[in-house]
Fold each of these.
Amino acid sequence: MISAFEGRDTKSAQLSILEEHCLLAERIDDASKQVDILFSATANQSPAEVSRVIVVLEDLLEIAREHFQHEEAEMTVNAFPGLIFHKRDHDYLIKSLMDFTSALNHGTTSLSNDMGVNLRSWLTYHIKKYDDAYVAFIGSERT
Ligand SMILES: [Fe+2]
């Protein structure tokens, strides 16, 4: 039997996971919009515009790292069986962000809508496939 306290714990755990994802989603959405805006603003990509995108991506990388570390630590504490696959998807995003930012820094790639589109689709897929599974696991473990 579940106590009222345990029920409240489950709800606040689910709420905190969802709130964090909303924050990350907003930041990814903001960053991808900025990439889109900068790209569509001019076909002639100036170093100043590339630098602005790099700052946005570096900020996003920091937020994503912090969020993923927190989420993975919580999954470890809760013995979530899907942790290894979930972490692999986090690592994929971090590596993609780092590679793209580094390529922009070294001038080996140019601004394009692709990064913004990729960020949005990664987030949608990650939340639907991985984060929802974790939220469901937490719910089932505590009921
Ligand atoms: Fe996640």
Amino acid sequence: MEKPMRKQRQDEEASDEDSGPDERDLNAPPTEEKQLEMLYDPAADDADEKWVQKHLGADIKTDAVLNCPSCFTPLSYACQRHEKFQNQFRAIFVLNCLIDRSTSLIYNEETQEHLSAAPPGTPSDQVYFNVSCAHCGERVGVVDSEEIFVFYNVFPSR
Ligand SMILES: [Zn+2]
């Protein structure tokens, strides 16, 4: 009794595949979401590349060239302007910058309240350090524990 029943079920499934609505869905062009998934390359697991993509987007592009406001030494050629604060920039590739790691600071990017000493026990991912121009010593910004620089005292140019 079992064998004929199983065969009948197979026949039904086979006929469904021939004209069922499911097959049409499978042949439909991929949705936009699917296409985006296909563009993602899981083999690109280089840590630096991922980090750059996470923080700067897929393309490294810059909103400005940042210079020291005092001596005009270039500080970064690849930065992102803050969405709200036009005088604030984020960068990971910097030059001519000195980091003062002797004092841990807390800094609030949203309110731009900055440069108060970090109380003991502050999580390391909330600690910032002063950054100054290596040429003249002007304070130009801060850097966080992930080496993301936040410049708030710079002269932007292109
Ligand atoms: Zn300077």
Amino acid sequence: MKRREFLSGTAMAGLPLQAAAMPQASPRYTGKPELKITDVQAFLVNAGRNYVYVKVSTDQGIHGWGEAYSAGPDEATVATVRDFKSWLVGKDPRNIEYLWATMYNFTRFPGGLVVNAALSGIEHALWDIAGKAAGLPVYMLLGGKCREKIRCYQSAGGRTPEQLGESAKRLIAKYGYTAIKCAPHPMGSQAMPYNAVTRAAGQRAEALRQAVGPDVDLCFDAHATIWEPYRAAEMAEALKPARPLFLEEALRHENMDAMAELRRRVQIPIATGEELYTKFQFQQLLTVGGADIVQPDICLAGGILEQKKIAAIAESHYVMVAPHNPLGPLATLVNIHFAASTPNFIILEYHPDDESPRKDLIKGDTIVVKDGYLAIPDKPGWGYEMDEEAFKRMPPRPWHRAFEFQRDGAPGFI
Ligand SMILES: [Mg+2]
């Protein structure tokens, strides 16, 4: 439509011609902040692996902590957090939807690993401040408790099926887990003939089931190392006699139709989502029927409120949520508040925080698993403080995942 036609059309609709002809500055939220953000800091530390922490400070002495996903390009995530600082200083940290939209919308192009990790870490810190300002744990601001404790699982390891079974038994004896996860394929599987990988997966699943008994839930994480749906289906068939709770990341995530095709072909539950961002990608995954269980990462998918929106989309598809949670104790705490307040939560991935150096990242009480469950903190915010002094003793180290190659030297998937 030409501009002239637009103006005459507006005038015909009864709007003042002058207002249409002379656009005003776009309106924006101008509520006077009662609490103002004064600083946004990022910390990169190594406590066995790199962790990215975000601290948001305010003019009233309240501060909040968040954790951004660490996947390798961590310096880039730190730089992005610092770049967002000028967009946030002076704003009320409790207007979290407004600030989330500021970061998401004004980045304009959909973010990937780095932007969504930075956004998620900042979002956590805003919720920590909101909880402290209200004198309430964060879950009380997000619907309150719908459970009293949080079920979690840990991954067992071992090169041989026997070692894997022993590892699982040790973890259950120590922490009381009611579910255990492992990789179905053996180490070096990218260079193995595929039939050998499938056969080994069946042997590992059988050994694990025999070691833990009939009623412990077993989860298998293929770590997105398989390319073709028919091969992932063969893997699922080999695991089926162990009656898995789920098979995780049986395929890479780029092609959601392929994941949906796999789900139609197999008879065990398919779980995925740790590499997906925001409600938008999870909506696509669930619309094509690509998952029985979704696994957003709260440090990557957009934060705790975004993960609750993802859970709501999943709930409408009768799909449960088992958050991906391989990072540090703060990520676990944010997930505990999510799980406490979310009806279709099923189980949380967990790496114990009861030993140094991980336990040194937070002040005060250690987070512990009892009978396979995590306690829900009842103090304001997340209920814990990060230890900035300890950060100084934990300089970051450059890292990347171990590279794996196929038999002919081509890069594999990791
Ligand atoms: Mg995984």
Amino acid sequence: MFYQSKNISVKQTKVATLLMALFVFISPMSAVALDGSAEIFPVLNKQIHKGVASCAASMCHGSVKEYKQTNIQHNEYITWDKQDVHSRAYNKLFNKDFIAITKKLGLKAPHEEPVCLACHASNVPEKFRGSKFQMSDGIGCETCHGGSENWLKSHTNKKATHAQNLDKGLYPTDNIVSRARLCMSCHYGNKDQFVTHDIMGAGHPRISFELDTFTELQPKHFTQDKDYADRKVAYTTVKAWAIGQAIATESVLAMVLSNKFHAQTLFPELSMFDCHSCHHPMSDKSWQPKKGTGLKPGSVPLNDSSLLMLRHVLAQINKGDGWRFKKKVLALHSASAKDIDAVRQLANEMHVAMPDIISSIEKHVFTATDIKSMTSSILNEGIWGGYNDYVAAEQCVMAISVLTISWDNMKAFDQSLREQIKTELNSMYSLVADDEAYDQLAFRQSLISLRDKLIR
Ligand code: HEC
Ligand code: HEC
Ligand code: HEC
Ligand code: HEC
């Protein structure tokens, strides 16, 4: 029934190709503005959005072939236009499955409805739409890179530095924290744009995200090689995964603290909870302790999948931080079975700690030892029963594949082991391919099987 099956099968084939990649640079990232609430997203950067046509000339980003000798690919427009779903996002709003949702909700047609346009298009305020701006461009270059009024000229000037372009309104997509916040603004949402349970109830698919996996899937129109690292910020998959989990956690906590989570209503916002704890037949009798929550049968746990993953990152950087975070997550769950004020208080304490957490991850250089240890602790937690809910299992699979790919990039596996791991990963992906057929015991078994091969 859910979109996820389609989604994962793409990832599944990707994993095989990814495992082949053997190229990685490690260097600490620069510090950035850490207050998530201060992030000004490209759509609202108060610069004229000149439209995709302004980027698509063949000398600029519309070359048919990728340039090999230059810093950038020059065929970014073609990649986006032909392969990136973002380019079709607005046009798809006219499809019947989109229209069915707004009809059920009594909203305007999707292409006129601000609620949908916020994430499925580039809903730039009227006065910032340039002469070549077109809604039909969907999620275009400037929706991620920022309205180009002030940087369009300078960004091709060899004398202008990247920092100067950023000052002129280019969005810092190369900064992983800012990039993660940008993706999350649509792939999770925030207090201004969110896929609430009424939208889901009308038929919107469940959404999930993992920064590194989705960066590969988009697909990439940039090459993160040595010259990239010299010009911008070096990218490593593990760090992107870790920061992605931290920003996902930050987003969840910010939503809990917003009035979208719980207004003066009987129920809180259901889409922030584990969907499958409600959505399964009663005859299943499939309840298993969700050990990381301490909750009893019949409870509805908050969707804590990113918090679960973040804990492993923190424990690796600093045992004490990992431990403290784990205690807070448990406390948050037990508060959720009691009262809203206690939930808010805990969420606030955790949210306040996020800037330090994010900067500790940014500063950390993840070594092969770190990767092995995080992989092992995630596998063990799953085997112990930590991911009995589907959403956690799904994040676990994406995490394990990112980690093993990075590990492989450090030349840790020989050909035969690499093949075995690929097979294991593919079977793990197929176990989470259909959320409605998720089998906790089979999943735990597959984690054991991978652990036997990986952690010797
Ligand atoms: C917070 C951002 C957000 C809002 C608001 C939002 N969506 Fe979505 N929607 C998404 C994302 C992200 C996806 C893709 C999920 C994925 O593939 O992982 C999606 C996917 C969909 C899909 C499935 C697309 C496909 O190709 O199968 C439909 C249909 C859809 N949205 C309809 C709507 C409608 C109608 C509205 C307005 C009532 C809306 N959405 C509001 C973020 C949003
Ligand atoms: C969904 C978001 C998104 C969209 C849409 C998007 N980009 Fe990007 N783009 C990124 C990210 C993320 C990066 C990598 C980080 C960086 O280098 O800034 C990037 C990098 C780039 C780079 C830099 C490559 C380098 O080596 O420095 C160019 C050039 C670029 N994009 C052009 C475009 C063009 C042209 C379009 C429209 C046809 C476009 N982008 C659409 C997210 C996006
Ligand atoms: C303006 C909102 C917006 C932003 C920003 C955004 N996305 Fe998306 N993204 C969407 C929507 C909406 C869809 C689903 C489009 C559809 O199916 O019609 C989508 C789809 C995708 C898909 C395809 C998912 C699938 O199931 O096949 C990937 C991958 C993706 N986005 C990655 C990213 C990454 C990585 C970033 C950050 C660099 C990003 N997106 C930023 C709105 C956004
Ligand atoms: C606290 C329990 C609960 C949680 C958590 C929950 N839902 Fe629901 N959901 C419901 C109820 C109750 C209905 C209404 C069922 C009805 O009308 O028959 C519903 C309806 C739906 C429907 C419409 C089904 C239909 O028959 O048309 C969809 C789709 C849906 N939810 C998806 C989700 C997703 C996705 C999540 C997680 C992001 C989620 N729900 C989380 C209780 C929940």
